[in-house]
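Researcher: For the record, we're logging two predictions in this thread. I'll number them. Prediction 1 follows.
Model: Prediction 1, sequence and structure:
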Amino acid sequence: RQGGTRWLSARAWRQAGDAAGRGGDWATARRDYTEALHLTQAVGVDIYQAALSARLGYLTSRQGEFAAAERYIALGEAIFQAFAFASGVSLSLICYAELRRGQGQLDLAVRLLAQAGQRHIHFSFDKLIGEQTLAAVRSQLTPAEFTAAWDAGQALTLAEAFALARSPLVAMP
């Protein structure tokens, strides 16, 4: 019973975090996701830990905490890959795209988003953050730069996309 209560509490905290994020209150979302992550770690729900880690990676990227973001995203990605959870894999790419956008690697961010878009994304909040990152990079590139990066991303394999995502400050060809 205790594990079930923690699990329900974690879901509530995650939903509260999503609501805060939709409203642009990233500090509250981060607090809520952190609480949910602690509860899921206590219960041992791996996929939920992955989703929360990825979301925390996205938020810390937006807050300029790139080293923390990379750790969170990598943790989420590893779990999603282990479970072959396609929607989670796309979420990981979206989070890496936000990280790279924050670091000024706009071309790489677009490539990762193009690859993420090749899989169905289950959760509306994950779609929302993908759309926000896409809009941000699109506004910072010329249409020709954006199209070239998008086409290059579509041509990547999933393994190539993750190799690029994980590489620090990649120089793009």
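Researcher: Logged. Prediction 2.
Model: Prediction 2, sequence and structure:
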Amino acid sequence: MTYEYANGVTLGAMQINHKEQHFVRSQGKPAITKLAIEMQWNAHSSEHQMRTPIVRGAPYTSMIYENGALPRITAERPLKKGQITIDQQEHPVQCGIGRDTYSESFRVEREIKIELDQSDMTWLVFLSSPMEFRCASFDASEEVWKLNLPPGVVMDLPSSLFDLQAISSSSSRSMVRLAMSNNCTSGQNPQCKCYCVFGSPC
């Protein structure tokens, strides 16, 4: 498969902004098997940490947040209509537009749906426990580069940035799972037209 960084979604943490990571160790040895490894990031000045099992063929990306670490989810494509859907509700949440223009906080019990416009992808985010979030979406500019972006975010101008930040959690330890549910949501992306069921077949 080919992978385009700009079309990805990144799982990070509010308290962890550096790119240092290490393998989780068990009995002094790295947690590595033939099909999986486990990696961990730690905050510099606190006990907050996040870790992820990377398993070959897994349909989900999972991140475990420990010691009160709060999830942060970013994408480098603009949101469709600037909105996200929470817990399958009929009325989407309108995210803020522009730097430091975040939405009012909203509670998510279990699930967030994120539709990205340019990539035509729909992503689902599943929570193990309820959390309060806020979100914003803005065009890339010089000011975007001043942000403390999560590890793995590669800004490639021209681009946009979607930022979803957890501001509180009902648990000191939680898991967030991310999955792509549709890579051709509306059929507008010519790169995936042969995988879409819109109109006549290829």
